[in-house]
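Field notebook, page 273. I keep forgetting to write these up properly, so this time I am using the form the group agreed on. The chain and the ligand, S-adenosylmethionine, are recorded exactly as supplied. Prediction of the bound pose follows.
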Amino acid sequence: MSDSFSNFQKALENLSTATEYVEHKDEKFVQEPIRPYNKEEFRSQFEKTETYSLLSKDYNTLLFEKNFPPWFHASQVGQTPRLVYIKHITSVFSVVPFYYINFLFQENNPKNVYDLGCGQNLFKKYIPNLIGIGAEDPADPYYSADIHDFVDDQFVAKHQNYFDAVFSINALHFVALDDLRKVVLDFASMIRSTGKGFLALNLQRMIERASRHLYNQNLSYIENWVHQQLSNMPFDYEVYDVDFTCRDDFMDGNIRLVIRNVNLNFFKERSKR
Ligand SMILES: C[S@@+](CC[C@H](N)C(=O)[O-])C[C@H]1O[C@@H](n2cnc3c(N)ncnc32)[C@H](O)[C@@H]1O
């Protein structure tokens, strides 16, 4: 069977099972991780790269831990965690996102890579064709985005089938966990069928905003619920790394998805509703 034919068949299968809503079922839902982060493997490859050399010059410590250490917890109003830890406490940078971002460049040569909710746009220095989209006030001294915008329904509608390569780290999770599927579908709808996207979300931010029904559940129920909501999607997962060992990963998220092969027909129909 030719590749394009099997891709076409897969797309049809996706289309017939993909839905806007997934009803939660009580039985255990098994979803195996796909290409999850492996610290040793990633480290041995990343240390050979130019990006690593540049980062090593800029920061005293590069962290390869899957989850940012909880002992770094601190709160500083008005600044994003990545800036707080880098500029104000110590010179530490978590390089873990590069594991997932690298997939955007594989079998793909995107002219631009977009970072939605870029905060201080700290990845730009290491990814020259990066365009950071930020919601902060342009008058704020920390404002560093290339484009001032905010991801909401209007933004999503304006950017359907738009990005060749896009990522968003811990920016689109300030909504109720109940809306997880919508957040992921909205993000995917902005990726071209030949493009790729990396989305990272922190479970804890969404639990804090969840309806009482979800808020009061234990972690194992929530984990099962999350896997169900992320199933039968109108795209493929190149990476499916959902790991709640660290329930509050405020730096790099604990729901990490690399999305590809987006089914445009599904989203065309969806946008008509
Ligand atoms: C935890 S910071 C992460 C910043 C950056 N992505 C990083 O990893 O360093 C959260 C950022 O998300 C942005 N944000 C929150 N909701 C957003 C939305 N709906 N659209 C765009 N940016 C958003 C905030 O302005 C803030 O800069």
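OBSERVATIONS:
- The chain has a mean pLDDT of 89.
- The chain has one domain: 3-25+97-272.
FOLLOW-UP: compare against the apo run.
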